[in-house]
């Protein structure tokens, strides 16, 4: 019978040693299970779908907070690619985007090709909002642009479309099969949200190159990486399984969650 | 203490319970289960959280981060000096050299510029996307566990019996502080006063504040609950509070461990694993002679 106490004591001691062992050995203990596609990683990623549904339920179509002119205290901080080195982009920039076109295609009844003037002649929306970078910083600025919902209505979205895919002019990465241009996607709820605009103006001036000229997306209830710059094409899709790594965007294919409302 | 344990060893604790007045069933299965779920969640949330912080190792006060002006109150970084790269930590503009741990760390000859060292982050290498996946998964576990614990503790009386503050607690607080300072611990069914304050503070102040400031950093939650950041003083202040509460939780954890070792780790661990806890024999030992040997 004394054995019982010893074994229990041994159990408790080894359990506590085990726990502290994990903590002291450093956290590379988990590295091997956390790569994109690993079982444990995929299980943990399930929480992103839960967050997506919970936030859709809680936020409904509520608007992101808007600020006042007095809150604009500095230029909008640029991030990611700030000066595309692509020949096509540099050519378009050389004559101030006169030859630039926005293509709207995919699952739409009427594919469109829009010039910057056509977009600017549509009703516009101006909003002072806070940009939250995934890294943790925030910056408040005034954005002017065409509501994405107006462009979608003009193109007439087919009922089977589920996502809006953004295709960009800037090279974000290089792979064996060539340059990777930035790409990303949002769902139709965010796409039709009143604050989701195709922005061509920043703080009362034309959108600068470092912030995405000639056109970038603002999705005000999402983190920065969900708002592609240097837009070239908007494509309505029912799935992004066949696009890039199949996770819905450049950063998503590199391990970031698809839903970026958090 | 030793002799008491030995006399008990002739029978298993569970079967001995009715005969042995000093061994009591102290922690319900709900308390034990939620305790360990928190232990696991907080471990992963801390280490993934430090990785997330590394992406922007600065803390600001206000709605946004100052780039053209200064509202930074805390920063970890690295700089080149005459003696090579050094890590520094800056608090309210005052700079401390923290080479080796904060700012500049790694194996000898392979040091890198990173705020928190690789042994303190998940993953150990720089990977913000993965840290966010881990952090938000365990955020769900932590929050769900807190709700389950609250409901269970309301129903089973743990809250009312063990945690609700009473006037009497204040009166006995000075004595309790003195006892702790002398490392003199009383093993009773009830939590002592400082213990009650610490547990209550974590459950009703720190963890809720952690969840609220976490939600206040989510742009979608800002749309759903716009008053959160107004109350907290802006998203960047919320982020700073989130970090400070993390430090307080780490401080709680360290004291929690020290107290367990000081009060008797076997007995304390047994009670949070099996529920059974050995209390002190009644005063003077006269009433239970069979245990006073």
From TrEMBL, chain A:
<dbReference type="InterPro" id="IPR000572">
    <property type="entry name" value="OxRdtase_Mopterin-bd_dom"/>
</dbReference>
<feature type="domain" description="Oxidoreductase molybdopterin-binding">
    <location>
        <begin position="97"/>
        <end position="238"/>
    </location>
</feature>
<dbReference type="Pfam" id="PF00174">
    <property type="entry name" value="Oxidored_molyb"/>
</dbReference>
<protein>
    <submittedName>
        <fullName>Molybdopterin oxidoreductase</fullName>
    </submittedName>
</protein>
<dbReference type="InterPro" id="IPR036374">
    <property type="entry name" value="OxRdtase_Mopterin-bd_sf"/>
</dbReference>
From TrEMBL, chain B:
<keyword id="KW-1003">Cell membrane</keyword>
<keyword id="KW-0812">Transmembrane</keyword>
<feature type="transmembrane region" description="Helical">
    <location>
        <begin position="197"/>
        <end position="221"/>
    </location>
</feature>
<dbReference type="Pfam" id="PF01292">
    <property type="entry name" value="Ni_hydr_CYTB"/>
</dbReference>
<protein>
    <submittedName>
        <fullName>Thiosulfate reductase cytochrome b subunit</fullName>
    </submittedName>
</protein>
<dbReference type="InterPro" id="IPR051542">
    <property type="entry name" value="Hydrogenase_cytochrome"/>
</dbReference>
<keyword id="KW-0472">Membrane</keyword>
<keyword id="KW-1133">Transmembrane helix</keyword>
<feature type="transmembrane region" description="Helical">
    <location>
        <begin position="36"/>
        <end position="53"/>
    </location>
</feature>
<feature type="transmembrane region" description="Helical">
    <location>
        <begin position="241"/>
        <end position="263"/>
    </location>
</feature>
<dbReference type="InterPro" id="IPR011577">
    <property type="entry name" value="Cyt_b561_bac/Ni-Hgenase"/>
</dbReference>
<feature type="transmembrane region" description="Helical">
    <location>
        <begin position="133"/>
        <end position="155"/>
    </location>
</feature>
<feature type="domain" description="Cytochrome b561 bacterial/Ni-hydrogenase">
    <location>
        <begin position="181"/>
        <end position="275"/>
    </location>
</feature>
<dbReference type="InterPro" id="IPR016174">
    <property type="entry name" value="Di-haem_cyt_TM"/>
</dbReference>
């Amino acid at each position: 019978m004394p054995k019982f106490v010893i074994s229990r004591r041994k159990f408790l001691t080894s359990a506590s040693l085990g726990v502290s062992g994990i903590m002291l050995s450093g956290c590379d203990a988990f590295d091997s299970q956390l790569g994109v596609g690993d079982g444990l990683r995929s299980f943990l990623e399930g929480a992103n779908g839960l967050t997506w549904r919970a936030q859709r339920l809680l936020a409904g179509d509520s608007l992101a907070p808007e600020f006042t002119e007095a809150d604009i205290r500095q230029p909008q901080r640029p991030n990611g690619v700030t000066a595309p080195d692509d020949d096509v982009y540099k050519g378009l920039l050389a004559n101030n985007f006169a030859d630039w076109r926005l293509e709207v295609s995919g699952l739409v009844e009427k594919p469109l090709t829009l010039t910057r003037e056509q977009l600017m002649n549509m009703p516009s929306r101006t909003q002072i909002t806070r940009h939250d970078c995934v890294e943790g910083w925030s910056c408040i600025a005034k954005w002017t642009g065409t509501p994405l919902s107006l462009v979608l209505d003009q193109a007439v979205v087919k009922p089977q479309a589920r996502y809006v895919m953004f295709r960009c002019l800037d090279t974000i990465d290089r792979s064996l099969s060539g340059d990777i241009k930035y790409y990303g996607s949002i769902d139709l709820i965010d796409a039709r949200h009143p604050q989701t605009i195709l922005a061509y103006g920043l703080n009362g001036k034309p959108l600068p190159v470092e912030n995405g000229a000639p056109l970038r997306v603002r999705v005000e209830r999402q983190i920065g990486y969900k708002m592609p710059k240097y837009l070239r094409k908007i494509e309505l899709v029912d799935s992004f399984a066949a696009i890039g790594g199949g996770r819905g965007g450049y950063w998503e294919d590199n391990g970031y969650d698809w839903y970026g409302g958090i | 203490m030793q002799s008491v344990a030995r006399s008990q060893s002739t029978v298993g604790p569970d079967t001995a319970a009715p005969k042995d007045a000093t061994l009591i069933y102290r922690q319900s299965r709900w308390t034990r289960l939620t305790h360990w779920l928190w232990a696991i969640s907080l471990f992963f949330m801390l280490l993934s959280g430090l990785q997330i912080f590394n992406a922007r190792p600065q803390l600001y006060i206000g709605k946004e981060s100052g780039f053209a002006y200064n509202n930074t109150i805390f920063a970890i970084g690295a700089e080149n000096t005459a003696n090579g790269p050094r890590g520094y930590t800056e608090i309210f503009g005052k700079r401390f050299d923290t080479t080796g741990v904060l700012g500049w760390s790694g194996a000898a000859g392979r040091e890198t510029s990173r705020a928190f060292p690789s042994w303190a982050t998940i993953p150990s290498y720089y990977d913000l996307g993965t840290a966010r996946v881990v952090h938000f998964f365990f955020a769900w576990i932590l929050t769900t566990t807190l709700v389950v614990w609250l409901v269970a503790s309301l129903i089973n009386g743990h809250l009312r019996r063990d945690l609700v503050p009473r006037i009497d607690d204040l009166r006995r607080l000075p004595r309790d502080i003195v006892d702790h300072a002398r490392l003199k611990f009383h093993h009773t069914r009830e939590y002592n006063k400082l213990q009650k304050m610490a547990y209550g503070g974590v459950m009703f102040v720190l963890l809720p504040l952690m969840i609220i400031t976490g939600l206040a950093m989510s742009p979608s939650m800002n749309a759903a609950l716009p008053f959160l950041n107004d109350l907290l003083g802006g998203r960047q202040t919320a982020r700073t509070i989130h970090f400070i509460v993390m430090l307080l939780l780490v401080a709680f954890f360290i004291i929690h461990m020290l107290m367990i070792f000081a009060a008797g780790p076997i007995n304390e661990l047994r009670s949070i694993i099996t529920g059974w806890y050995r209390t002190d024999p009644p005063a003077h030992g006269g009433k239970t002679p069979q245990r006073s040997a």
